[in-house]
């Protein structure tokens, strides 16, 4: 898992070194293992791993978000339903383009659907060139919002 995460970091640093970094190798495995333990203890969190011949080819982290109590006064309809949030997808460099990432996201969607999710939400870097093609063309997501940032 750590190598796929570092590969993702290298990919995004090439896209935008101002916003991204390659995670430190020192302590990364421990950090990931503590996250795995936390996810295992929470039924609303999922960590799905793609294994190719005994090697982690990639992984996806996802979570369920339940309807908000004041949804009837909100502007966004989706706040009234259970949503699947795809938090992270990491695929090792040698497995990119093989369908591993798509299979992981589809598995996360199925996991969410089985638990009552009716909408899936993913956030990605539009400048990567990969995100629009991956989520929109291959997986059927549509752009709905723009995330903006400003240094203070």
Compact summary:
The protein is α+β, with helices and mostly antiparallel strands and 152 residues long.
Structure, explained:
There is one protein chain. The protein is α+β, with helices and mostly antiparallel strands and about 150 residues long. It has one domain: Aminopeptidase, CATH 3.40.630. It has four helices and four strands. It has a four-stranded mixed beta sheet, sandwiched between helices. The protein is globular and about 45 Å long. The protein starts with a helix and ends in a 14-residue tail after the last helix.
Task: Identify the notable features of this structure and list them briefly.
single chain; 152 residues; alpha+beta; Aminopeptidase; 4-stranded mixed beta sheet; 4 helices; globular
Shape estimate: globular
The total of beta strands comes to 4
Tally of DSSP helical segments: 4
Class of secondary structure makeup: alpha+beta
Radius of gyration: 16 Å
Largest sheet: 4 strands, mixed
- Give the distance, in angstroms, between the N- and C-terminal Cα atoms: 33 Å
The CATH class designation is Alpha Beta
CATH superfamily descriptor: Gcn5-related N-acetyltransferase (GNAT)
Write the CATH fold name. Answer: Aminopeptidase
Mean pLDDT: 92
SSE sequence, one letter per element: HHEEEHEH
Whole-number tally of structural domains: 1
Q: Tell me what portion of residues adopts beta-strand conformation.
A: 15-25%
Helicity level, as a percent range?
25-40%
Poorly predicted sequence stretches spanning 5 or more consecutive residues? none
Second-tier CATH architecture: 3-Layer(aba) Sandwich
Spatial strand arrangement across the major sheet: 1-2-3-4
């Amino acid at each position: 898992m750590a190598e796929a995460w570092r590969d993702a970091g290298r990919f995004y640093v090439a896209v935008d070194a101002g916003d991204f970094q390659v995670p430190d190798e020192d302590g990364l495995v421990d950090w990931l293992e503590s996250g795995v333990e936390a996810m295992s203890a929470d039924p609303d969190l999922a960590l799905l791993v793609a294994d190719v011949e005994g090697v982690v080819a990639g992984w996806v982290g996802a979570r369920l978000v339940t309807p908000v109590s004041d949804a009837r006064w909100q502007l966004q309809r989706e706040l009234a339903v259970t949503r699947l949030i795809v938090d992270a997808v990491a695929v090792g460099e040698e497995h990119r383009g093989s369908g591993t990432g798509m299979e992981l996201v589809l598995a996360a969607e199925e996991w969410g659907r089985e638990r009552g999710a009716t909408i899936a939400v993913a956030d990605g870097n539009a400048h990567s060139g990969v995100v629009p093609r991956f989520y929109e063309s291959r997986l059927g997501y549509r752009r709905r919002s723009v995330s903006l940032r400003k240094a203070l």
